[in-house]
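Quick one:
INPUT:
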């Protein structure tokens, strides 16, 4: 089974985690959570530049573990019939790059190298048009900075080759847009196989 990796990116409090969970449920598949949240909850919300490299490495380890889980499920023919070959990923190295550069004005070479080495099949860019929800880890409640971050992400996606879709509106509208983009990816894969 060929696993399609779909990454959800965007500023904080734009529904990325919720969307990942909803998509994994909809497609009877898996999602890879954002490791940064676990790290900051364990180590405290103060962080240094090198902490972001630690977070980035653990994020990719977690992603690889999820891929192995999906491959294991696909090896079981009974379970494989009920699961779609999608992994929904709540953050990637683009997010780490934006975070590094926005906070520290620099980015680790290792993160930049991973951006060029890793391949994904679809990006979903969440627009900051949901109300900001406060939690113990979020840093940017003001819309101006959230929009600035959104435009950083959009600029990155416009200048790379992987297909991407903008996701906006309320939670249900976001889910329907994400399903449509994912289904379009699947239809494209099926058309390739028929050739």
């Amino acid at each position: 089974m060929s696993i399609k990796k779909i990454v959800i990116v965007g500023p904080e409090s734009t529904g990325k985690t919720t969307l990942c969970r909803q998509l994994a449920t909809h497609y009877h598949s898996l999602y890879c959570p954002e490791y940064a949240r676990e790290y900051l909850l364990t180590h405290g919300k103060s962080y240094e530049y090198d902490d972001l490299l630690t977070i980035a490495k653990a994020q990719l380890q977690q992603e690889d573990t999820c891929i192995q889980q999906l491959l294991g499920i696909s090896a079981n023919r009974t379970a494989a019939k009920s699961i779609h070959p999608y992994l929904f990923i709540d953050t990637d190295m683009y997010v780490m790059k934006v975070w590094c550069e926005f906070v520290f004005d620099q980015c680790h070479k290792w993160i930049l190298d991973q951006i060029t080495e890793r391949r994904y099949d679809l990006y979903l860019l969440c627009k900051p048009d949901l109300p900001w929800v406060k939690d113990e880890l979020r840093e940017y409640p003001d819309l101006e900075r959230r929009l600035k971050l959104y435009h950083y992400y959009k600029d990155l996606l416009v200048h790379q080759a992987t297909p991407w879709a903008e996701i906006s509106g309320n939670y249900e509208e976001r889910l329907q847009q994400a399903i449509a983009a994912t289904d379009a990816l699947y239809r494209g894969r099926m058309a390739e196989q028929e050739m």
